[in-house]
Design a protein that fits this description.
Blueprint (H helix, E strand, L loop, with lengths): L14 H14 L18 H4 L8 E3 L4 E3 L8
Amino acid sequence: MLKIAVFSVKGGCGKSTVSAGLCYALRDRLGWDKVGYLEVDISGTSGHRAFGLNPPRLGLDTKKQKLIPPLVDGIR
């Protein structure tokens, strides 16, 4: 499993946009069938907007007690 981190201490520099674009590029250009996006911005998330989710939607599996991230264009 490959993990790629995109980070900066400055806000508003395009981290979410670059990360979302990277997810689509890995899926489309490299043909990866499993691509995930995890945002851990404690000051204010904006990655959901890059995928057209406003507000962000999470599912809940009560049996396994897990959150289920949304699936958008094959990216979870």
